[in-house]
Amino acid sequence: MTFIYATVDDLEAWTQADVPDNADALLRQASTLVTEAIRTVFYTVDSNGKASDTTVLATLKDATCAQVEFWIAADINPMAGGVQATLTLQQTDLGSGRVRYDNTSGLLLTQARIAGATTLCPNAVTILNEGGLLYGKTTVYG
């Protein structure tokens, strides 16, 4: 079960702008990425399994909002796997009716959009790391 760490109101406050109609779906998908990133980190939870510490909750909310903000800015739809790229027109010839596209740049753009849709953006990673939720804290006993 994935918790949704932020609401549409949280996202609007974070971005200081109107959010897209699919904001709920974006928040759900971003929460899934955040959950995956913190799955090996220990923190206190309530009886429902939700983080009970307000600092942890705020960190999760901020990372989720940062991820959705990235998707909005990059025009990435993670539910489509990020694949909305178009090929770059490289050459047209009127006489022969030939059109050629730059497949390399299209492929690279598609790969970048897929990565953007399926991995945490740098800002979300930084927020989780600064909140002690990404790499965990080292404790030495003895």
Give structural notes:
- This protein is mainly alpha-helical and 142 residues long.
- The protein has a domain at 8-79 and 120-130.
- Helix content is 49%, strand content 8%.
- It contains five helices and two strands.
- The protein has helices at 8-15, 23-37, 54-74, 103-118, 122-130, and strands at residues 88-93, 98-102.
- A two-stranded antiparallel sheet has the order 1-2.
- A hairpin with a 4-residue loop joins strand 1 (88-93) and strand 2.
- Helix 3 runs antiparallel to helix 5 (122-130).
- The chain is elongated.
- The mean pLDDT is 83.
Helices and strands, with pairings:
Layout lengths: L7 H8 L7 H15 L16 H21 L13 E6 L4 E5 H16 L3 H9 L12
Antiparallel strand pairs: 1-2
Helix pairs in contact: 1-3, 2-3, 3-5
Concise account of the structure shown:
The chain is mostly helical.
Q: Indicate the structural class.
A: mainly alpha
Number of strands: 2
Sequence of secondary-structure elements: HHHEEHH
Mean pLDDT: 83
Q: Number of helical runs? A: 5
Q: How is the biggest beta sheet arranged?
A: 2 strands, antiparallel
Strand order of the largest sheet: 1-2
Helix proportion range:
40-55%
Shape: elongated
Q: Beta-strand percentage?
A: 5-15%
The radius of gyration is 20 Å
| Straight-line distance between termini | 37 Å
Which segments are poorly predicted (pLDDT under 50) over 5 or more consecutive residues?
none
Descriptive key words:
142 residues, mainly alpha, two-stranded antiparallel sheet, 5 helices
